[in-house]
Amino acid sequence: MLLTQLLTGKKARVVRLTARSQKRRRLLDLGLIPDTVVKSIRRSPAGDPTAYLIRGTTLGLRSEETNLVEIKELS
Amino acid sequence: MGLTSQSSGLNVLKKEFNLTSGYNNPVIALAGNPNTGKSTVFNELTGLKQHTGNWPGKTVIQAKGYFSHQGQQFMLVDLPGTYSLLANSTEELIARDFICFADPTVTIVVVDSTNLERNLNLVLQIMELTDNVILCLNLIDEAKRKGIEINIEHLQSELKIPVIPTIARDGYGITALKETVFRVNSGEIKIKPYKIKYSPEVENKVIELEETLEKRIGHLKNFINFHWLALRLLEGDQTILYSLEKYFVDYFPSKILSGESGVQASGVR
Q1: Overall number of domains in chain A
Q2: Which of A25, A55, A56 sits opposite B86 (nearest CB)?
Q3: CB atoms within 10 A of CB B66
């Protein structure tokens, strides 16, 4: 499952990043390291970007970024 | 051949950052993640009233101020808040280029004590680029309120840099911060920060690249950290090549971006 598909209010655990080189580094710098718990906070009216709670900070990410993050949803 | 600021293009940088630094006018950079209270620390140190606000991207254009401690004047530069130094955005590019090319005497990294884990990523990146780093544990009161206790001694011995807890809003810890900056500048405190070790595969490639850099641009060794530069080149960071060319323009008449210098060809795909 991709981070893009996580519904608002739901939590997930990062499994792996499919991004490579600079894009990968960017996501890691934002705190999206495997095993990190991420919560989808809210979606912008247009559906993109989406706000996520990541390691204590709310960050807005675009689907082009969240498409590169594989997750496992937490119940 | 000596490298004067005229010939190196460093005057371009000084102009860009509006610096009038000299031997007796040390420059102190203030870096940190967004929303950690950097501008509040800046105001407390300088006595200025730079606009502070609780939204990201406020300090895109760098602010400059002065403070004195024991008769020594320091110029303080407030850098935009960033999560990393990898130049993915204008803010990161400004912060990166300033620390890399303006060569501040000391860099203070302001972190949010309630969210240390996230903040330490940038601290490690800055420690990789420059030795004189001071960690400012801001919002230490909020951390306490949230039940977070930070072992300052332990953090200090792990990172091998001075760690100063502050509550900038109340002015707590600001004098200690000034005193530490003063003692680092005077040479009384010598900082040798912890350096990240990469896998042998990476480290070997870095050594190879450093040797190439030494051969090709050895005359710039006093102006840029070759180990750090080699790591960036290995990552395929194009922006560092643009910045190198911008700030050392006279030294790259053949344009490094064309790959003619051999820097690109040897290490970057």
Answers
A1: 1
A2: A25
A3: 14
